[in-house]
Design a protein that fits this description.
Blueprint: H1 2-41, H2 49-70, E1 74-75, E2 83-93, E3 103-105, E4 108-117, E5 120-133, E6 141-156, E7 160-175, E8 185-202, E9 205-216, E10 222-236, H3 239-245
Helix pairs in contact: 1-2
């Protein structure tokens, strides 16, 4: 009877955690949709975006706290380089600042590879998105961000997975036309922070929803916030890869 009671309690905790996750996901989508509608109507500055993001963080932290108290929250335990995770994510820029008065980042794509790395996860990737100028005298360009970083996975109830991390890398701007002094390419350092939640789909496939904040270290900082969603696939790394990395 005691075992049945424990099983029932765990199932209840799993159900609550899953419901909390989907509620948070639905809220994030709703906030993003409202923000984009405000952009179309020209009233985006009146949207309390920072408060919305703070609210979502509180919801996620509540989920983590509940899971921890229930004793069913754990860190990812795979050994260094034992697995590889390949991901593809759709990027949608959601913030607006001075940069957006001159350019409009078009939706893009992020390709990544991740592997366990001792106390966390090492992740490398490349983000690509075209940027359209709002003035005919200003050049369009392609923005490519090649990055590498480290993060931490937390396994939540119901096989949910939360990942938080940072990356550093190079931002390359490929101008559509030659700019002043014949410059066609520019490169700047960048720093990105990201938070992602994933859910199982089928086998080793998982659906991913999250957000990232990219800071391009130009003289005038470029701050870009992205809503991301996509898929990733995990598999055991080949022996030659493990031998090479170790």
């Amino acid at each position: 009877m005691h075992m049945l009671a424990q099983t029932g309690s765990v199932r209840k905790d799993l159900l609550c955690a899953r419901m909390l996750f989907w509620y948070s996901t639905a809220t994030a989508i709703n906030r993003a949709h409202a923000f984009m509608q405000a952009i179309d109507s020209g009233t985006e500055r009146s949207i309390p975006l920072k408060l919305s993001l703070l609210y979502l963080c509180i919801v996620f932290m509540t989920a983590l706290k509940s899971s921890s108290e229930a004793g069913i929250l754990s860190a990812e335990q795979s050994g260094p380089f034992e697995t590889l995770k390949v991901g593809v994510e759709y990027l949608s820029n959601t913030n607006r600042n001075l940069f957006h008065e001159f350019w409009d980042p078009v939706r893009g794509i992020d390709l990544s590879i991740a592997t366990p790395f001792y106390a966390g996860t090492m992740r490398t990737g490349i983000s690509l998105f075209p940027v359209t100028a709002k003035d005919v005298a200003t050049p369009d360009y392609y923005h490519i961000f090649v990055h590498a970083g480290w993060g931490k996975h937390l396994r939540l109830p119901a096989d949910l997975n939360l990942f938080g991390g940072f990356s550093i890398g190079y931002n390359t701007f490929i101008l559509g036309i030659e700019a002043i002094e014949g410059i066609r390419y520019e490169s700047e350092l960048g720093l990105m922070f990201s938070l992602r939640m994933s859910v199982p789909v089928y086998g080793n496939w998982r659906a991913v929803l999250g957000g990232s904040h990219l800071t391009v270290l130009t003289h005038e900082r470029i701050e870009l916030v992205f809503l991301t969603f996509g898929l990733n696939y995990s598999f055991d790394s080949p022996l030659w890869f493990r031998n090479f990395m170790q």
